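queue> pop job 88
queue> type: inverse folding (structure -> sequence)
queue> payload:
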């Protein structure tokens, strides 16, 4: 990347590793120097929370605001009814309007932690594309907007081509998605003066569509900037763990488990993740990322604390760190561990250790739990668990029991009352 930016925002994007591509580096850089630039990212409301895979986008909007510009979070209340086909092997299940609204409420809580919504010139806006998409007249839309799209060109986009190359069905409903996303950019420019769309690099084709459409219909110059699609150094998709998605809402994933995800970062990723997911100075990120041996573990604690503080607050980060130190360094039972509380009715005459491993989330199924025990990967109160037929009764739960899977995953089981 040889471009030397003048604006603070572009400098941050390049130095910290946010930039994959830009439709016009110089044009966007100059716009950023000339006044407050509104920029948006669209998020489909397919779940009640966003996960760590979206965090690079959220941090992009946070930096946009911190450097004097206006973030717009666009909720896909309309497009969620269609579903984004990008790089998916199958069609998304369709949600009801009530489910979509419920999901949007959950996602709003995530954004409010990272950016500030207000009436100030740089105060963030939250909008829902149902505002304009729900009102569209199909024939007018075909005539005014559809005529600007070439099917030949749409078929050449990687997101569509990959589905067709694998001979997987792509419905007309999904095929329309890219037109609707382009139309979002046009409407945000028309209504709010939005000048730039951000997205992962898989969104490049959709972003370029919106720029072309806005140029043709309004004759306005707008821009696109993409972030890299992140994988961890061992090739895993960012935001996924062995136990599923790493959610950003505390009611879907405890702050302790969130903290633990970052603490378990592989050594090679520490410096890069510090730049992307924290606001520590670049020099400090480089220094911490270059540590070796046991010292890199302290850098991982810094990473976990910084990221958890942004997402869940400083108290949650401190509680997670002290629980982790108690569990790992002293072999104790931390108060903040994921906890399964059983009633006397749940327990009956006793419950099998296999069921407890599943209930606590340490195993995905009974079969998985038995394999864990057979491979000596399970512990009960820090002692090896060797008997898959073990039954746990009320007497055994007179004090909370700590279950472990491997060295890094733990849970408490206790009796209600």
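queue> result:
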């Amino acid at each position: 990347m040889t471009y030397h930016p003048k604006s603070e925002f572009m400098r941050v994007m390049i130095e910290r590793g946010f930039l994959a591509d830009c439709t016009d580096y110089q044009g966007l850089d100059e716009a950023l120097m000339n006044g407050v630039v509104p920029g948006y990212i669209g998020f489909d409301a397919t779940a009640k929370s966003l996960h760590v895979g979206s965090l690079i986008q959220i941090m992009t909007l946070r930096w946009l605001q911190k450097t004097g510009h206006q973030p717009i979070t666009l909720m896909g209340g309309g497009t969620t009814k269609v579903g984004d086909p990008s790089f998916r092997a199958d069609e998304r299940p369709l949600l009801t309007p009530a489910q979509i609204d419920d999901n949007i409420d959950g996602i709003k809580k995530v954004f409010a932690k990272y950016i500030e919504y207000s009436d100030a010139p740089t105060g963030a806006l939250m909008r829902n594309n149902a505002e304009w998409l729900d009102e569209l007249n199909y024939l007018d839309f075909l005539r005014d907007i559809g005529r600007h799209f070439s099917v030949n060109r749409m078929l050449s986009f990687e997101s569509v081509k990959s589905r067709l190359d694998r001979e997987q069905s792509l419905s007309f409903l999904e095929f329309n998605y890219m037109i609707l996303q382009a139309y979002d950019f046009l409407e945000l420019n028309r209504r709010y003066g939005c000048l730039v769309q951000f997205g992962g690099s898989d969104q490049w084709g959709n972003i370029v569509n919106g720029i072309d459409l806005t140029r043709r219909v309004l004759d306005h110059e707008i821009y696109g900037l993409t972030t890299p699609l992140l994988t961890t150094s061992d090739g895993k998709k960012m935001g996924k763990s062995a136990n599923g998605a790493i959610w950003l809402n505390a009611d879907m994933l405890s702050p302790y488990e969130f903290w633990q995800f970052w603490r378990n970062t592989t050594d090679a990723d520490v410096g890069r993740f510090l730049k992307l997911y924290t606001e520590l100075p670049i020099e400090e990120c480089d220094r911490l990322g270059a540590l070796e041996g046991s010292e890199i573990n302290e850098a991982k604690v810094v990473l976990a604390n910084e990221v958890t503080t942004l997402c869940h607050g400083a108290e949650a980060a401190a509680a997670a760190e002290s629980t982790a130190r108690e569990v790992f360094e002293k072999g104790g039972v931390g108060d903040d561990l994921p906890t399964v509380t059983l009633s006397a009715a749940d327990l009956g005459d006793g419950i099998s250790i296999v069921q407890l491993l599943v209930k606590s989330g340490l195993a995905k199924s009974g079969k998985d739990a038995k394999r864990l025990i057979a491979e000596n990967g399970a512990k009960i109160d820090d002692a090896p668990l060797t008997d898959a037929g073990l039954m746990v009764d009320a007497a055994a739960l007179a004090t909370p029991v700590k279950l472990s899977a491997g060295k890094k995953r733990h849970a408490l089981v206790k009796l209600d009352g």
